[in-house]
Design goal:
The structure is a single chain. The chain has 143 residues and is mainly β. It has one domain: UDP N-Acetylglucosamine Acyltransferase, domain 1 (3 Solenoid). 0% of the residues lie in helices and 39% in strands. Strands 2-5-8-13-16-18-19 form a 7-stranded mixed sheet, with no helix packed on it. Strands 1-4-7-12-15 form a 5-stranded parallel sheet, with no helix packed on it. A 5-stranded parallel sheet has the order 3-6-9-14-17, with no helix packed on it. The N and C termini lie far apart (36 Å).
């Protein structure tokens, strides 16, 4: 389902978006770009406040959550009154993101990386690294 500002979503050739997936530029300037031959799994949520770019030939499994913003955490202001903070997400080519993974704001994932199922990625991932865990840490490398 393409939400809110569908004109700000760029889908290149042969992109597959499976049922229940939500792709949402959340404001008039937010952008989402998905590269050629990339597949987006069932019930995956991609929410952009600034910019999310997913490369070519990627596999994004079911129930993945990719969001480029979070809320402030000041204790002197109610949580629901705090402004969003947004930093772009960049996901390279040939990346595999396992089911239930979470990709947080400001992260760059290098070409060929693998994100294990259930990982919470809050820091950059080097090309061809395999990361997993909460928070995600390097657990291997592609050979």
């Amino acid at each position: 389902m393409l939400l809110r500002y569908p004109k700000n979503i760029k889908l290149n050739s042969a992109v597959i978006i499976k049922s229940g997936a939500h792709i949402c530029p959340c404001n008039a300037t937010a952008e989402v770009t998905i590269g050629a031959r990339t597949s987006i799994g069932f019930h995956t949520f991609i929410y952009s406040t600034s910019e999310i770019e997913i490369g070519e030939d990627c596999m994004v499994a079911s129930f993945v959550y990719i969001v480029d913003s979070d809320h402030g955490i000041r204790k002197d202001l109610l949580m629901n009154r705090q402004a969003n903070r947004s930093r772009p997400i960049r996901i390279g080519n040939d990346v595999w993101i396992g089911a239930h993974a979470v990709i947080l704001s400001g992260v760059t994932i290098g070409n060929g990386a693998i994100i294990a199922a259930g990982a919470v990625v809050r820091e950059d991932v080097a090309p061809y690294a395999i990361v997993g865990g909460v928070p995600a840490k390097v657990i291997g490398a592609r050979e």
